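ligand=zinc ion
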Amino acid sequence: MANPDIGTIACPIEKGCVGKVRQYSKGSRKYYYACKHGMITPNLEAGQAWVAANMKPLDPEEQPKPEAKPEPEKTPKPKAKNWLSSLLEDDDE
Ligand SMILES: [Zn+2]
């Protein structure tokens, strides 16, 4: 399964090229990016730091924005039958 995109980065190879930053889900958990030039993985720490510093994260979960809480549903209280309505209902048949 492909790893999810976590951000975008301006590819330094060509101006205007934008790569999609992902992170290996296993093992090294290194950042890499994919663009028209291919999958580019800076495999040393300095390159990893460059990706981390230059990527624009797009994961909305990273932003500490509290989600709007859904309104608690109001449970309608059962109406107590008054003596009149029960008298009327019991009249049927
Ligand atoms: Zn590129």
